[in-house]
Amino acid sequence: MKQSLGDRLEKKYSKYAISNLSMYMLICFAIGYILELLPLTQTLLDYMRLEPNLIVRGQIWRLVTWVVNVPEKDNIFFLLISLYFYYSIGKTLEMVWGDYRYNLYIFSGILYTVLGSFIVYFVLLALGYGQLPIGAYFTTYYVCMSIFLAFAATFPEMEVMLMFILPIKVKVLGIIYAIIMVVECVQSIAYGGLVGLLFKAIPMIASLLNFLIFFFCGRKRIGITRAQQVHRKEFKANVRASARAVTKHKCAICGKTDESHPNMEFRFCSKCNGNYEYCQDHLFTHNHIQ
Q1: What pLDDT digit, counting tens, does each position of 78-103 carry?
Q2: pTM summary value
Q3: According to the model, what pLDDT value does residue 254 have?
């Protein structure tokens, strides 16, 4: 079976992937928030922001250190909730995609954000404003938002409690957030012109480019690892070659079957006490039955 370039790269470089990347991101945000709170460390935090005009002068550490900027810091209560939420969904994506794909997704989002900042810098340089600081516009906010959008695309039918009260499907929240961001992007260009494009649209698009590539180029393989793809192809080949009836698969949580959702993966859980089978939306998120 011929493998794609992405599969070959995954097979070759997956051993270098960072395990539990979500935890390291959480630690970075914690460091950034502490530096934000302490008056004596404000200068240090300024030396860590993503400023292309200073990077080209030799301050290359800014290419990495800007990731300590927390996505939101107005309210400590909502900050802790949002960080825990991003950690939990990021950890779930790690389990479903594997370390390599999750690493690739996160680091590509960081890389595109850096490239976006340099695009803005070179435009400003051409206009004679190359010394203008732009680090405040290139933060981890949209990088974290790309994690949520990827989670919504991978588990569209999963429900979360909005404001701890109202159950709502993740795909609905993802669509709402996507619409809001598109409107904000269009408005920033329509009303702000070049300024809106440079300081709102480009930071947003650059930080979310990893999701756009992921969704439009690999949407048929969302939530499916390379090993699962091989298994799916082999399974379908065996089904076509066999004249026997195939036993129906049914999720113990939502009741979905392979007949009602033929493109969905079903697996038995080895940690549950009994023969319990789950769909790909609930395989890694259910409570184990003992």
Answers
A1: 777 788 888 899 999 998 888 898 99
A2: 0.73
A3: 85
Percentages helix, strand, coil for the chain, rounded to the nearest 5?
Answer: 65, 5, 30
Burial class of residue 151 (count of CB atoms within 10 Å of its CB; 0-12, 13-18, 19+): buried
- Type of residue numbered 167: P
pLDDT of residue 228: 54
- Count Cα atoms within 13 angstroms, Cβ side, for 279: 22
Instruction: Give the separation between CA 68 and CA 47, rounded to whole angstroms.
Output: 12
Rounded to whole angstroms, the Cα distance separating 148 from 5 reads 27
Please give the C-alpha separations between residue 31 and each of 130, 139, 146, 151, 201, in angstroms, as whole numbers.
30, 15, 21, 25, 28
Q: What residue has token string 């609905």?
A: 172
Distance CA 280, CA 100 (A): 19
pLDDT on residue 74: 63
> Tell me, what DSSP letter sits at residue 67?
G
| Three-class SS state of 279 | strand
CB neighbourhood size of 182 (10 A): 11
Angle formed by the axes of helices 170-196 and 141-154, nearest 10°: 150
Sign for the pseudo-dihedral over CA of 88, 205, 116, 44: negative
* CA 159/CA 86 separation, integer angstroms: 15
CA-closest candidate to residue 67, choices 121, 37, 30, 39: 30
Amino acid at 211: F
Stretches where the chain sits below pLDDT 50 are 243-245
